[in-house]
Amino acid sequence: MAVQRRREPHGAVGQCPAVAAACLPLGRPRLSAGGSSVLPDGSEPGDRRCPPERKRRGVRESRPRREEPRRGRHSPRGIPTRGKAVRGTNGAQAARELRGGSARNGRRSGAGAAAAGAGTAGSRRHRGAPGSGAAARSRPAAPRSPEEAAPGPPLPSPPRAGASEAGPGPRLRVSTATPEAAAIGREAGSGRALGAAGPARARRDALQDALREELLLSPLPDGDVAATFQFRTRWDADLQRGAVSHYRLFPKALGRLAAALGVRELHLALTQGFWRTRAWGQPPLQAPAGAELWVWFQPTVTDVDKAWKELSNILSGIFCASLNFIDSTNTVTPTASFKPLGLANGTDHRLLRYAVLPREVVCTENLTPWKKLLPCGSKAGLAVLLKAERLFHSSYHSQAVHIRPICRDASCLAVSWELRQTLTVVFDTFSSGQGKKDWSLFKMFSRTLTDACPLALQSKVYVDISPKNKEKELLEVTPAPTSVHEAIVQGDKRTYAVYDLLSPSLFNTSRSLNVQLKWKRPQDSSELPTPVLHAQRYVSGYGLQAGEISTLIYNTHPYRAFPVLLLETVPWYLRLYVHTLTIITKGKENKPSYIHYQPAQDRRRPHLLEMLIQLPASSVTKITIQFERALLKWTEYTPDPNHGFYVSSSVLSALVPSVIAMKDVDMEQSPLFTSLFPSSDGSSYFVRLYTEPLLVNLPTPDFSMPYNVICLTCTVVAVCYGSFYNLLTRTFHVEEPNRGGLAKRLANVIRRFRGVPPL
Amino acid sequence: NPDPKSHAVAWDIEDAVKRYVQPVLDKLSLVANFSVDSQILYYAVLGVTPRFDKESSSFLLSAHSLPHVINPVEARLGSSAASLYPVLNFLLYVPERSHSPLYIQDKDGAPVSTNAFHSPRWGGIMVYNVEAPASPQASLPLHVDVDMVRVMEVFLAQLRLLFGLSQEEVPPEFLLESPGNEGLADWELDRLLWAHTVENIATVSTTLTSLAQLLDKIGNIVIKDDVASEVYRAVASAQSAMAELATGHLQSAFQASKEAVTSSERAFFDPSLLHLLYFPDDQ
After folding, report:
1. Alpha carbon of A311: minimum distance to chain B alpha carbons (Å)
2. pLDDT in the model for residue A63
3. DSSP strand E in A335-395: where?
4. Which of A37, A102, A455, A502 to mutate to test the interface with B (most CBs of B within 10 A)?
5. For A192-248, what is each residue's pLDDT tens digit?
6. What is the pLDDT of residues B146-195, one digit of tens each?
7. pLDDT per position as a tens digit, A81-130
8. How far apart are alpha carbons A604 and A624 in whole angstroms?
9. Looking at beta carbons, which residues of chain B come within 8 Å of A138?
10. How far is CA A133 from CA A129, A155, B206, in A?
11. Binning pLDDT at 50, 70 and 90, where does residue A560 land?
12. Which residues of chain A make contact with B36, given a CB cutoff of 8 A?
């Protein structure tokens, strides 16, 4: 179908009166305009680099000639960015081939053809590819920020706690890590005390980078199991300074990237599925469906947009994701919702970029490069469990990379860099395990743990065994845990069984660790504990012209009201009417105390709506806004336009008051899953939630109509012309009826005898 | 380091780079800009399993299997991520315990004395064997301090090779200047400049020629003014480079040839050339 549409001579579209109304505004096809950009979408040469619809195979295969060469030459990396399935498996191979190298001259011909394509560049490649292969040389205007990251960031003054600069709002998030700083000072000692103190471990402390790995297994209320991996690499070095850098545990690719582009904080999450907050409770770290990327740049970065573009392209290369689709139409600069999670002096939100690609499909080819960033790869430690075929056989999969600067020690005079790689996966063991809620590591991952990553300073498995419904000891874990850890996580008291993989006693009895959890008696299906804050969002309205986006935010806290920051990013083809924005709580209108709205520009930027809303205790707040669906140009439709268009999740950030008073916990000691978001004080905790992505149908012209017309016309012509031609050319002559053969006459004689009419 | 469980390898790369590599690169800074990074990869694997040799009770890697060694390592290097410039990789491979000692064999089957090899335009790999501990009860991981002098000797030699500075057979009556501390004599630098200038000029001429051929073949490519000016500049720089070369000003000749190359490349790879290239003729 897509083939038909793209290849259509556009005159054919105009012919049909039926869709004339729909087609007219679609205007000229992009193809006919050739070089100069027809669309007012500010098409810079940059967007040539990322050929549209790379992932959608329908289009790609239909016009290989147009796409391939461009991809080969302009792909931001050396590897020609192929379709997803191809790259994951032999991306490395392709890279190798492209590099050529005279050692493997024979292979280069194939790769060269792929890169040059279409025979055009073939003629010029005669000169024996002196560079490292065709594609490696063929990038236009090799972008590279200078290494000398000029004066470097000023040393962070002792971080100011509190007071988000979004003026009218109350303090929403405390943007730094004072408790953490206090904790780090103790780390040297604690590292040694942690276990198996040997000369090697002591030396590792001196090397100033440390890896901690951790797996949190928590049974969810409805019987599923969530597994959260966290790998934290802390590196006591300043990425922004120093031309020569020596990497040990920190992955070089990301380090170089952050240094070259002046990245201060980078948060990338690739997610498949949706975390059902209502049924599963508060996630340790939620991410919206698809790909989410938000980055704080250093103040020294002059052209943030350019750096952002470059960064997203490089990241798409590193993670084999289509992050190169991030452009100005889906990038926003939120003013209040996203604060730096690490060390920061001053939050100038012009240095922030945020983008979500809700359509992105996450699969193994994104997992493999993610695993490669781990120092131990997937060869040792917790990462052996990361087996793609199990991980993606789950109802929720989210992998993320967070880079942020943190204080090196208590005095906070120097900066360390922290890389957190997290992976959350929800196994539907309940439904696939014959209704039993028991699980084990082997059942979920089809692997067991055999050792810790030898490079890790800490390697622990936490199992959430917190008693539910005030009943004790409903479940038991085997083998016996090394210790039990109690913590208050997200306003809830939790008990964790801890397995320290570094303690030698754990592997003494058996070679491997297979954590099992059994319920002692079938758990009565009691009411699910609803989380304090959750939200849901949907599109309402009928017809294809107007519609309404409704967001319901629930505050189930019995007696505390709290504010929540809502961030909506709506693509430009839904024209929001801000005057229809209504916020209703308990039947009354609720005036937001802070609104930031940035209207969309067609094909240039999306709507951005940020609101600070006060949620009264135990209430439901309904936010509705109406929109009109815009007509797209006919080339702007996806290959499957009737599938609908995605609207990315809206983001809710809130400091949720805790029911239980929280202690001021030691960040460095506490398990990793608690420490990404800084907690401000004992009475509340930070939560960031994402709502469902929306799928909106846009008025779609009948793309198959020209094809139908052609078919019908051809049929009519064939039938009419054929029969007419037949009539004209065929000669008719009357055929004498034959008297029949001997047998027939004989039969008739017999029939006459019998008195039966003859044949 | 494929086996962090049994070897804790430490190398003083910072000092080594400062002491050995930097002087060479300073000297070569005329030719190109260099930046040096290092990283340690754990659980890196060789693409091939080495063959066990009973006579010497060691493992052998034969010459024809060497190309397969690079691939799996390359995938994890991540050197192409943030920069688009060619990267030379120098790898020190500490074989895992079950495979050591590991020696590289050349084509004739004799072990290579440096235990290293290089691949043109990619870099070099050196295998660094760790002596087995005297007593098998020695605690793992075994701490290993890499002898950087030995490593750097090999790497610098490889670097010279990769830059095309091979040891030439010099007529015996020539008096050779000692390479000095930089490991690179002045005359060698001169030769390098010569070679690169000539190569650059050749590159420029082939690029421009193929651009012209392309234009002859495909008529509907539009050459914009800026592309044209790039072409003119390339030609002018190439000519000036030749003139400088004739008078013997190596450095300015080299600069001019570099400019010529960049502008000719820019002209050839200008995206505006592509715009109409894939436009089908029948529409």
Report:
1. 9
2. 38
3. 352-357
4. A455
5. 333 333 333 334 434 467 888 888 888 877 778 888 888 888 887 766 555 556 777
6. 777 777 777 777 777 776 665 555 555 555 555 555 555 666 777 777 77
7. 333 333 333 333 433 443 433 333 333 333 333 333 333 333 333 333 33
8. 24
9. 269
10. 6, 42, 16
11. confident
12. 243-244
pLDDT of res. A24: 30
Burial profile B258-280: b = 16 or more Cβ within 10 angstroms, e = fewer: bbbbbbbbbbbbbbbbbbebbbe
Q: Output the pTM of the full model.
A: 0.69
Q: Which residue has the higher pLDDT, A380 or A432?
A: A380
Residues 56-85 of chain A with CB under 8 A from chain B are 65-66, 69-70, 73-74, 77-78
Q: Which residues of chain A lie closer than 8 angstroms to B70, CB-CB?
A: 96
Q: Any bridge partners for residue A214, and if so which?
A: A230, A460
Alpha carbons within 13 angstroms on the beta-carbon side of residue B218 total: 23
| Amino acid of residue B105 | Q
> What ipTM did this prediction achieve?
0.73
Residue A455 has pLDDT above 50, yes or no: yes
The C-alpha of A205 sits at a distance from chain B's nearest C-alpha, in angstroms, of: 13
pLDDT at A36: 34
Contact at CB, A9 and B283, closer than 8 angstroms: yes
**CB-CB neighbours of A592 under 10 Å:** 20
Beta-carbon separation of B82 and A102 below 8 A = no
Picking from B69, B73, B122 by the largest number of A CB atoms within 10 A of its own CB, the best residue to mutate is: B122
Residues with Cβ within 8 Å of residue A530, at least 6 apart in sequence: A278, A554, A556
CB A622 within 8 A of CB A629: no
DSSP collapsed to 3 states, A114-166: HHHCCCCHHHHHHHCCCCCCHHHHCCCCCCCCCCCCCCCCCCCCCCCCCCCCC
Interchain CB contact of A306 with B (< 8 Å): no
Closest-CA distance, B200 to chain A, in angstroms, reads 10
> Which strands make up the sheet holding B123-127, listed edge to edge?
B89-93, B123-127, B116-119
| CA–CA min distance A172, chain B (Å) | 35
Closest CA to B71 of A93, A98, A106: A93
Using a CB–CB cutoff of 8 Å, tell me whether B40 touches chain A.
Answer: yes
* Site of tokens 């000691």: A669
The least confident of A23-32, A422-431, A631-640, A711-720 is A23-32
Pair A263, A297: CB distance under 8 Å? yes
| Nearest C-alpha neighbor of A78 from the set B84, B232, B174 | B84
- Please state, in angstroms and rounded to a whole number, the distance separating the CA atoms of residues A602 and A652: 26
Given CB atoms, is B219 within the 8 Å cutoff of chain A? no
Of A121-135, A205-219, B41-55, B234-248, the one with minimum mean pLDDT is A121-135
Evaluate whether A362 touches A269 at the Cβ level (below 8 Å). Answer: no
